[in-house]
Amino acid sequence: MPHDPDPPPAKKFKPGSVFFRLEKNKPGMLLPRKGNVTTPIDVQRKQLPIYQAKPRLLNELRRLHNAIVIGETGSGKTTQIPQYLFEAGIGRQGLIAITQPRRVAAISLAGRVAEEKRTQLGKLVGYTVRFEDVTSPETKLKFMTDGMLLREAIGDPLLLRYTVVILDEAHERTVHTDVLFGVVKAAQRRRRELNKIPLKVIVMSATMDVDLFSEYFNKSPVLYLEGRQHPIQIYYTKQPQSDYLQAALVSVFQIHQEAPQSHDILVFMTGQEEIEALARTCRDIAKHLPDSCGPMVVIPLYASLPPAQQLRVFQPAPKGCRKVILATNIAETSVTISGIKFVIDTGMVKAKRFNPDSGLEVLAVQRVSKAQAWQRAGRAGREDAGVCYRLYTEQEFDNLIPMTVPEIQRCNLAGVMLQLMALGIPDVMNFDFMSKPSPETVRSAVEHLELLGALERKDGQVLLTALGKKMASFPLEPRYAKTILVSPDFCCSEEILSIVSLLSVDTVLYNPPARREEVLAARKKFTSSEGDHMTLLNIYRAFKKVGGNKEWCRENFVNSRNMGLVKEVQAQLREICLKLNLKLESCGVDTGNIRHCLAHGMFISAAELQPDGSYLALDSHQAVAIHPSSVLFQAKPAYVVFNELLHTSRCYMRDLCLVDADWLLDAAPEYFGRKLHITRS
Ligand SMILES: Nc1ncnc2c1ncn2[C@@H]1O[C@H](COP(=O)(O)OP(=O)(O)OP(=O)(O)O)[C@@H](O)[C@H]1O
């Protein structure tokens, strides 16, 4: 049976809150299907639920320094409030920043708002995301990832360029958002003390813990935008599903066979591998369906796709063709994908988990929170009534946790700590966190950074070292930053820059399972017995040698667009190196130096082969295994460093490099002396 959705979990209203009761699903307000094709954009703006509340909303926002805005998904918060403020002259002395947890949202929202303002993107309306800045001196409305605003705060802790900061999708509680909350709050207070232009802080979401947020932001009033433009029907399965991928596949084809061809489908899944696998299966099945079913285009969407490929989901499907988007949670908040009528929610997500005792951070598949489930449903019903199929029972939904546990309480804090120290906030435990990380997690992060040489203790105080300061200049995990910084000692900075850039992009290889034999044959000439890093480097070198030739990429199963992105990332990292006066040189064919350097920077993520053929992570003493995708899967070397751990049926190391025990000992003699019994060869 279909269920009308409850309002999202922000149902508890605080005394003294301001309500803007919007008309619910007023029939005349429905946009025509694919409304943005036929309805002029300024009419569309006026049809949004938020428009009715505009004058009162502006009155409130004009007088308040802090406000919390709660409105249902699709009510128009993100696209309209920045424009309303700008049009009303609020915060005109500086910029209005709108932060998003994800880059795809920041980019697409900036595009939409620029279109609504009839201006070229990068002029009045722009965006800044990692490795990309599309703004100009004219920019007043700046969409950005929360991580980017945080980086700006390192150079300008008072955020003086900004008069308004809108922290959007605050319920997501990414590490960056949580740190940003504290940074923005401190900037606001300091500016008041110094008599500078005040900073207005607006926190927005459809699904957040209002009390917690209001309390944290100086007991700020809550402005509720009630009502939604288009209804969304929710369906649950009758029985729990043991195989959510199979259930998703069946649902896609059921809809495909029954629903009008112009209704597109968005499926929420957990990660790249399962998305690519399901995409192939869908394409194969679609080929064999009767003509009456009509064609289908299947488009993947996950974080490691290059931006241009991510933005493909926003393009309309070819006429008469159904668009099926298979996405991770990067499409969960903020985005509007034109044409989406159906959302299929598997109820699963891949998220980080950190065990401070073992020091292990792993990625693992787990159930979503209710807040996430509502956000996912909210991706339907943006241009017209929508439908969300939850591939779990209503009872399972009831048992979900209400809000996602803040990332700060479940991830390795080393990177955040480094940024906080660079921001001049030494006492991290006393930093004004909305939800404090556990003392063990902080201790573990301090230890991690000390080991990397980023922190030192002096007179009982923990201080940032010169190396730590340099590490904070890179938008990278501390161990990668360290690897780059030590690379001149091994005369291989060019190679390390290439490797780190390749790892930042993640998927330069294309592995269609149906052509497994061909892929293996093509890869053979690049495969290095020294591991995945060296193999990737060989491929990158070959790619550059042929000038990025597309035909070569096709023949060698290399993703040419991602390779293009690697080049961009590398150029930006190189720029940072030049600013730091780092010597850039190549070691040529001597791969020993490169691996030695990797061991030096990544020794915290090292593992040792055990007599029974298994591996032990040296830091945590936890059993780990080599992921089957690694070129070292069969080889089983004695010592490796790895990039990440993936928890599925076992804890797998991904992207490995063969190293010598001596190098690990040299990198951190005391640490390894304490932790294990490596003996020098
Ligand atoms: N790129 C786009 N193309 C077409 N319509 C869009 C686009 N972006 C926004 N819209 C329209 O504007 C509406 C409001 O979008 P907006 O992102 O401002 O809502 P919101 O209240 O912030 O929702 P959410 O909490 O889900 O982010 C959408 O429902 C859709 O109708």
Automatic annotation (TrEMBL):
Cellular location(s): Inflammasome; Nucleus, Nucleolus
Keyword Acyltransferase: no
Residue intervals of the Helicase ATP-binding domain: 58-226
Methyltransferase in keyword set: no
Location of the Helicase C-terminal domain: 251-424
SUPFAM superfamilies: P-loop containing nucleoside triphosphate hydrolases
Catalytic reaction(s) noted: ATP + H2O = ADP + phosphate + H(+)
UniProt cross-references to CDD domains, sorted A to Z: DEXHc_DHX33, SF2_C_RHA
EC number: 3.6.4.13
GO biological process: positive regulation of transcription by RNA polymerase I
Highest taxon above the source species: Eukaryota
Role according to the record: Implicated in nucleolar organization, ribosome biogenesis, protein synthesis and cytoplasmic dsRNA sensing. Stimulates RNA polymerase I transcription of the 47S precursor rRNA. Associates with ribosomal DNA (rDNA) loci where it is involved in POLR1A recruitment. In the cytoplasm, promotes elongation-competent 80S ribosome assembly at the late stage of mRNA translation initiation. Senses cytosolic dsRNA mediating NLRP3 inflammasome formation in macrophages and type I interferon production in myeloid dendritic cells. Required for NLRP3 activation induced by viral dsRNA and bacterial RNA.
Protein name: ATP-dependent RNA helicase DHX33
Biological source species: Crenichthys baileyi
